[in-house]
Each structure stands twice: as C-alpha cells, then as structure tokens.
Amino acid sequence: MRTDQPQTIYLSEYKVPAYLVEQIELRFELFEDGARVHSTLTVRRNPESQETGKPLELDGDSLKLESVALNGETLESTAYEDRGDKLVVPDVPEQFQLAVVTWIEPQNNTRLEGLYKSSGMFCTQCEAEGFRCITYYPDRPDVMARFRTRIEADKSAYPVLLSNGNPVEQGDLDNGRHFVTWEDPFPKPSYLFALVAGDLVEKRDSFTTCSGRDIDLRMYVEPRNSEKCDFAMDSLKRAMRWDEEVYGREYDLDIFMIVAVDDFNMGAMENKGLNIFNSSCVLASQETATDAIFQRIEAIVAHEYFHNWSGNRVTCRDWFQLSLKEGFTVFRDAQFSADEGSPTVKRIEDATLLRTAQFAEDAGPMAHPVRPASYIEIGNFYTLTIYEKGEEVVRMIHNLLGSEMFRKGSDLYFERHDGQAVTTDDFVKAMEDASGRDLTQFRLWYEQAGTPVLNVEDDFDAEQGVYRLTIRQTVPDTPGQTNKKPQHIPFALGLLDSNGDALPLNMDAAETDAPTERVLEITGAEHRFEFYGLDEKPVPSLLRDFSAPVRVHYPWAREQLLFLMSHDPDGFNRWDAGQRLAIDVIQSLIGHDDETEIEPRLVESYRGLLNNDSLDQALVAKMLQLPSENYLVELSEQADVPSIHHARERVLLHLANALRDDLLACYQRNNQAGEYELTSDAIARRSLKNIALGWLLHIGDEEALALATEQFQNADNMTDRLGALRALVNSGFDQERTEALDAFYEQFQHDPQVVEMWFSVQSASHKTGQLPHIRHLLGHEAFDWKNPNKVRSVVGAFAGQNLPAFHNPDGSGYEFLAEVICRLDDSNPQIAARLVTPLSRWKKFAPTYSEQMKKALESIRDKEALSKDVYEVVHKSLAD
Ligand code: TRP
Ligand code: ZN
C-alpha cells in the first residue's frame, strides 16, 4: 500500500507565477538509447508576483539532470537542488538565462506523456503536464514563451523532423545525422509544445484564407497509411472555412500540420500548428472506416483545429479552467457537425452521451463542477463533465443570448484576451459585456456539480381555458457539496392540441400573435407558468432540443408519448418521446415473468416508423434504437443487470418477431446499389438497413442470415461489412459467426484500426464477450498491452458496454478488471485510471454486485506503488 499521500491541488491557492519565461530555446539530440535535451530559458521575475525573493522552481518528472548553467556559468551541484519533481535554484537575479541539460529515455516511456516512441517514430504529448517529462520548466499554462526548437536525428531513420511554427533552418550533420530548426512566433504554454521525428510520408494541400493568405496544409503518416488521409484533409479545409464564416477566425501561421500516431492516450491534441492524432481518429477509407468513424474524424479534426483560437490564442490560466477551452471548443465542433450533417441527429447523439455517461459521472463519486475546485491528478479531469457538460453550459449561453449576441460576445472574448491565459469567468464576463445580460446566477453552472432535476406538474382549468405548469428545481448533493442554490435554466417548451398542431403560447391574457415555442427561464426553486386561451388540455413538449442538461420528471401517460412520437415538430422531442416510451415499457417488465404482456401499441408505433418515408430517415434510424443497457442502469436505483438485460432483450425479440416482414422490406428498400456516399441520407439508409439486419438475425431469421452473409462478403464499404459482422456476432448462428470473424481477421489483420473494431465487436457482445474469450483475446497476436487503443477495444468494450458479461454474478468480471488495472498502472497510469470508471459506479448496483465491485476496488487500493492517477479515482470511489 502506498504510504505517502498524494497532494490535493486547490483552485483557492492559485498564485501568479513568480517567474516568467520570455523565450525557450530547445535542442533535441535523438538517439536509439535516449535523447539529450538542451534547454535555454530567458527568464525574468514576474512584476505582478508578491513572492519577491522566492527561489526559481522548475517542474520535472522522470528526468536525468546533466547540467545547469546560469548566465553561461555552469553551476556547482550545491548551487541548486534537484528534488526529482522540482529543480530549485535559490539565487537568481531579476533577469537571467538558465541552461539545463537533461537525458530522457523515450524508448522506455510507456506512459505516453512527454517524449515517447510509437511504431518507430518519436512523438510528444504534453497536455496537461507532459512537458516536465522532457525538461525542467515552469510547466503551467499561464507561463507563455516563444519557442525555438532544433531537432537532430539520424537522417535515414528520421527524415521528417517537425515542431511548432515555421521551419527556419535545416542541414546535414556528421554521422548521417541531420537537423531542422523550427520557430513559433506565438508565445505559448508548454502544454502546446510538440515534436515529431520519423520516416513519414507527406500529404500536401493548401487553403486560402478569407484575407487571401495561402496556408500550406500537410499530413504526415506512415507510408502504409498514405491512402487514408483524404477525408481528414477535406474535413480540415471545411473546418477552416467554417471558422472564418461563423466565428470570423482566420488561421494565423503559414503551415498547419497533422500527424497520425498509433499509440496515444486520447483522441487528438491541438499543439500549435502541429496537431497530433490517434490514428483511429484521423485515418479512414471507405473500405476500412464506418460512417460513425468518418463522422468522428470530421468532428475531431475540426475540434483540434478550432482550438487554435479557443485554446491556443486564448488559453487557460490554470487547469481548473480546462472547460474554458474544452467546453467552448466542443460546442464549436458540435455546431460545425450540425451544419455539415443532420442537426437533430447530432443533438440526439450528444444528449445520449450526456444523459448516459455524464449524468452518471455527476451522480457518482467523481462528480465535480465544470470548473473544479480541487484535484489530485489533472489527467483524471479530462471528463465528460469538463467536455460535454461544459459544452452544454456554453450552448445555454448561446441560447439565452441568441446567435447574434453570442457572436458579439465571442468576438469580444477573442479580442480582449488574445495572447492571454484566462478563466471561465473571463469568458462569461465577455458574454455579459457584449450582450448586456446579467449572468451572475448562471455562473453557478460552473461552480455547482450535480445534475439539476426539474419536477414538472400541470393542470388544465377548462372553464378559464388556462393551462398551468408548475416547475420545481432541485440540485442534488454531490461529494463535498450540499444545500445548493437554484440554477438559471433555459427551458424550451411547446404545446400541442389533439390534432398535433402547435398552439400559441399565450402567457398574458391580452396577448395576440403569441409564439408557438418559448424558452422559459427557470431561476428559482419553484415557478408557475400560465397559458391562456386554450380549448382543451394540451400535450406539453418539454425541454425541446434538450435546451439544458437537466433531468425532467413529468408523469407521462403512454398515449401522450405515442402522440408526441408522431406529432412533435421538435425532432429531438419526437425521438425522446420514443425513448421514454421504450424505457417505460422495459422498466415495467423488469422483475416480472415472461408471461407479462408487452405494451401492444409499441409494435404499432415502431411499424409506423419503419414505414415512414416522409420523416428524416436519419431521425427514423435513431428512433428505432432502443435505449441502451447503460442508460437503463443509469435510470435505476439498485441496478440488477441480468434483469435489465433480460427485459430489454424481451422487448427487442418481441418487436423483431412482430415486425419481421416490415424489417425485411426496410432492409430491401435501403439496400441500394451505387456509389458509396457520405451524405446524411446515404448514412441514414445504411444505418436503417443494418438495424433491420441486426434485429432479424437476433430472431434467427434464415432469410436474413443469407442477406447478412452476402452483405458481409460483398460490401464495398466498412459500414456494411461491419454491420453484417456485428449482426452475425450477436446472432445465435454460431458457425456463421465464427467463419465471419475468422475471415474478417484474415482480410484485415494488417490494419490496426480495423483489428481494433474486430476486437471490440467481440468484446462488447454478450454472445462472444464472456470472460474466457476476453482472456483469449488478450493473448491474441494482435493484442498489445502497450497500445491504448487495443486495451480500450478489448477491456474498455467489455467493462463499459458488455454489461451482462462484466456484471457476472460470480464477480469474475470485476476481479478481472482490477487485475488489468493493476497491471496497467505500472506502464500507463492515465489509461489505468480511466478503466476504473465502471467499478466506481458500484453504489448504483444491487447489493450482490456492489459488494463485489467494492472488493475489487479495495484490491486495487492495496496495490504497491499505486500511481496518483489510480489512487485518486479509487480512493474517491471508496469514500463515503
Ligand atoms: N486537449 C486535447 C483535446 O481535447 C485532449 C488531450 C489529448 C489530452 N491528449 C491528452 C488530455 C493527453 C490529457 C492527456 O483536444
Ligand atoms: Zn479539446
């Protein structure tokens, strides 16, 4: 067990830096057995710091210090203190140059923070605190410096040498080595530093900005991936144009580079001028990537590009402000994706993620505000709350202000804070100043954790023709936060009459020409709203387009939900009504025997959907998907996974059996030959077709088996091939499943991204993903413990998606996960800590499960030399 307790960092203890770095000159000597890093800092005391006379303290991690020189004079080892995680130099003048030489071992860096090697190339990941694994430095985002970086390496093994900014010098050296020097004219925090060295092919394109400047666009990938760059490049150009048009943001350097690396802890990183991507989030071709992956690539390429303004030009003062750049940038990429595809479907996908996973986080032991007040390991705070709830908070500001005022606010924010490291409060202030709106109460969204709950009641006064809505708000307690204040919630609403027509929302008896949709502003604990001039009790359409990240409780009758499913003009709420109905039906079966009748109207409403060709087919495809097991767990008190799984399965089988002919017709209708297209309509057709196929195979339909086999073998794109494979894997056709899995591996074994899909299809399926098979996959030749994507595609998919197998009542799934976490903790603590999430939710489950989950957590807690990453998540999970 670990004896030293990792330190907690508090926002309240923030102090401006005592020293500022004006310039950093780096020289990297890259070798096979390590790298020597020469760093020369031009430092001056910060006039704004109160801490006069404080020694210079630089952060470091896993560094071997070789020498320190002050103003050109090498220091005796008594003139500084090397504490490992800090280099302290007590006597420094007002201004000086400090030269530090360190030795590091990228080839042994399995944490993938700092400088490391991935399939033979050198690359970096510095956010949040990786730069300190490269050299001693004030590694905090409010220290911004100009970087000049010289990279030296063997010319034949590493012909391509990249860093931020523009190349200013290059040449050959002795012993077959060469160098390139890069200069970044924009001062930046160390977390945005990047370096890449490797044998990479270059893909070039160009973009002309709104002011007529030509930007060189380059992608660097391993030669085997040279045919998988086009889509990302195209997405980049569309994102660049979009940011000019929608936000008035022009790109600022002459070059913009993207590099793909196989070993990466997250999705991608916005390093200035040199974005580095996880291969799985950037490389794609029709034959190897599904529609969902294309959409993910488009969103992530845009996200990282948008960071150039929301993150790089204006950055975070400290890591408590992480959502300043992430929440805003996710909002920007979501707007972009909505504009490029189907806005309703994008909203449904985002709301699904938020309600399934972020609500769970907000109700669990790791709950934290969008702007946290403390942390132990910042790597644990790249969360759904920071990103996704942070996005919702920006979206609410957008909706409260309207697009025009929001744009004024963002213009003011960028203009006022360009080149600065600022806080979420500065962002809100710019929005306030530009719009004249008071967002004082709104700021609670940044400070209070927990998902607000709105309890809605209504009644109709037939005599007066008045419809009354009562809305009560509560914000639940979360660890360390109780008795919270009511928040400012934009609540979009419409009312429908019995024909399905939108009613005018007349809130003032004298009003004429009232709008049919309003955004009510909930600010207190209780509100009453009255709507006049109505002839009958209307059907309410609540929280349209998911106008706030809250839970809404209203005593829905099934007729109302069925009615909204086919009449609500708000696409999001049509879908949501269907989800609520399906949830209600599934929940009513949990714990009942198989004789219990399944709501007959459900079949009819799904039949209507399957045959509806007037509705956006992308929306239809979403509406056909039953709520996930994860969401059903999130909605329950003491989840019993086998019962939830069984009830959901019953509904699925019931629907598929009753709708067999409609499903087959839907498949045929949408199985059109022709060129592969990535339009939203073509994507919707493939999605519908593959849903139909999946349902039909689920009920063992022989005709569908023939269709699936044919589609699996002859598909000209991965969406269809994987759709057929997934349907086969989840079916009862054992032999065909095995044959298809073998054939698929045989065909794609040389493509790591496809092999990852092959792993996760099996691991996420309750048909194939039982523990013995998971262990078998861990021993497979393509599995690699050092590669986070492989770990995620087997272990992550098993514990996160395959609920019936993970929650095996014998506890074996939990023990297995604990064992994997302990193993990974020694090599990659960030990845290990993320895998704790499924166990951290132990209190949500019925006692037989929760007790065993807790035991698994305790076994991790008792491991020797636990990283602070895993320490924080496990200890917070076990705290009461
Ligand atoms: N800033 C990155 C993004 O959201 C996130 C990121 C990439 C990251 N790699 C990381 C965060 C490693 C922590 C550790 O765009
Ligand atoms: Zn980001």
From TrEMBL:
It is an enzyme of class 3 (hydrolase). Its EC number is 3.4.11.2. Residues 559-879 form the Peptidase M1 alanyl aminopeptidase C-terminal domain. Its cofactor is Zn(2+). Residues 450-554 form the Peptidase M1 alanyl aminopeptidase Ig-like fold domain. InterPro entries: Aminopeptidase_N-like_N, Aminopeptidase_N-like_N_sf, PepN_Ig-like_sf, Peptidase_M1, Peptidase_M1_dom, Peptidase_M1_pepN, Peptidase_M1_pepN_C, Peptidase_M1_pepN_C_sf. Signal peptide: none annotated. It comes from the Bacteria. Residues 231-442 form the Peptidase M1 membrane alanine aminopeptidase domain. Pfam families: DUF3458, DUF3458_C, Peptidase_M1, Peptidase_M1_N. It catalyses: Release of an N-terminal amino acid, Xaa-|-Yaa- from a peptide, amide or arylamide. Xaa is preferably Ala, but may be most amino acids including Pro (slow action). When a terminal hydrophobic residue is followed by a prolyl residue, the two may be released as an intact Xaa-Pro dipeptide. Residues 28-192 form the Aminopeptidase N-like N-terminal domain. Keywords: Aminopeptidase, Hydrolase, Metal-binding, Metalloprotease, Protease, Zinc. GO terms for molecular function: alanyl aminopeptidase activity; metallopeptidase activity; zinc ion binding. GO terms for biological process: proteolysis. Aminopeptidase N is involved in the degradation of intracellular peptides generated by protein breakdown during normal growth as well as in response to nutrient starvation. Belongs to the peptidase M1 family. This is Aminopeptidase N. It comes from Marinobacter persicus.
